[in-house]
């Protein structure tokens, strides 16, 4: 593995040149993005440079579905966290990938993010591996709602929670603690009174199989896999590196710190994602 370690802005040119060389050698890329690409848009990531959790793990699917207490905590924190994600804008890394797609370099982008920033940047051929946070589904009748609509319902029902402040966390969450969440009124589906859930794959849930199969089909036809901003600690993303390695497909990564696939990488660029991508042609 070739490694480019850039901890200072002065060496960002070396990182960009290394990435440009990888793209020139492998002009048709499947790209896999993670939370690290959106931090320059103001959305926090999950892990530190050693791939350890920065905060408590996100909500588990089983807990959300089975526990009203968990849902109260989730939606109360979302009153603070969701506006941060909703109002975030694509940064130059998102825009550069959209430009590369238009130039024919990216037949498919797979994202582990649920923020929709790739679409807002103009990217077209995307698989939202973990869903989209701006949509809400009823788990009973499958009715669909916008996240803003559900957010407003919750605000109207919980006047006493409007004044709380907290640090934003990933995926529309917030680090709101030491609050009596039992006082929070969770809105249910107005059609069937079923449980409402963001259209995202929570931890402990499964990524839709058809999305995985479509991604693998495109990967098999690509010149290389390029990972951007992911530690790959979650298997839903790591699986693509595992398959690429089995198929003899080169793997490059632009991310800060350790990844689960370090031993499988052809090229690793440990540098600022935004500074690196905005310098490539």
From TrEMBL:
InterPro entries: DHS-like_NAD/FAD-binding_dom, NAD-dep_sirtuin_deacylases, Sirtuin, Sirtuin_cat_small_dom_sf, Ssirtuin_cat_dom. One of its GO terms (molecular function) is metal ion binding. The keyword Metal-binding applies. The keyword Transferase applies. Pfam families: SIR2. Zn(2+) binds at residues 138, 141, 189, 192. Transmembrane segments: none annotated. Residues 8-281 form the Deacetylase sirtuin-type domain. Its EC number is 2.3.1.286. The active site is at residue 130. Gene3D superfamilies: SIR2/SIRT2 'Small Domain (3.30.1600.10), TPP-binding domain (3.40.50.1220). Keywords: Metal-binding, NAD, Transferase, Zinc. This is protein acetyllysine N-acetyltransferase. The lineage of its organism: Bacteria, Pseudomonadati, Pseudomonadota, Gammaproteobacteria, Oceanospirillales.
């Amino acid at each position: 593995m070739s490694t480019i370690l850039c901890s200072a802005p002065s060496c960002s040119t070396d990182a960009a040149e290394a990435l440009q060389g990888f793209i020139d050698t492998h002009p048709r890329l499947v790209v896999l993005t993670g939370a690290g690409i959106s931090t320059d848009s103001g959305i926090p990531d999950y892990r530190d440079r050693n791939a350890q959790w920065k905060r408590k793990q996100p909500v588990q699917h089983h807990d959300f579905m089975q526990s009203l207490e968990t849902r109260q905590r989730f939606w109360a924190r979302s009153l603070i966290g969701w506006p941060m994600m909703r109002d975030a804008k694509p940064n130059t890394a998102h825009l550069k990938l959209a430009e590369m797609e238009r130039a024919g370099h990216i037949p498919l982008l797979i994202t582990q993010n649920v923020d929709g920033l790739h679409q807002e940047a103009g990217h077209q051929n995307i698989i939202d591996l973990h869903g989209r946070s701006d949509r809400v589904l009823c788990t009973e009748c499958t009715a669909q709602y916008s996240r803003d609509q559900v957010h407003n319902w919750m605000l109207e029902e919980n006047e006493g929670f409007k004044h709380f402040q907290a640090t934003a966390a990933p995926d529309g969450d917030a680090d709101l603690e030491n609050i009596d969440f039992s006082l929070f009124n969770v809105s249910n589906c107005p059609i069937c009174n079923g449980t409402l859930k963001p259209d995202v794959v929570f931890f402990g849930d499964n990524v839709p199989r058809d999305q995985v199969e479509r991604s693998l089909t495109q990967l098999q036809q690509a010149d290389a896999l390029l990972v951007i901003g992911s530690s790959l600690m979650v298997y839903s993303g790591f699986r693509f590196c595992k398959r690429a390695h089995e198929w003899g497909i080169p793997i490059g990564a632009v991310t800060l710190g350790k990844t689960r696939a370090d031993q499988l990488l052809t090229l690793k660029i440990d540098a600022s994602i935004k500074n690196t991508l905005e310098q490539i042609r």
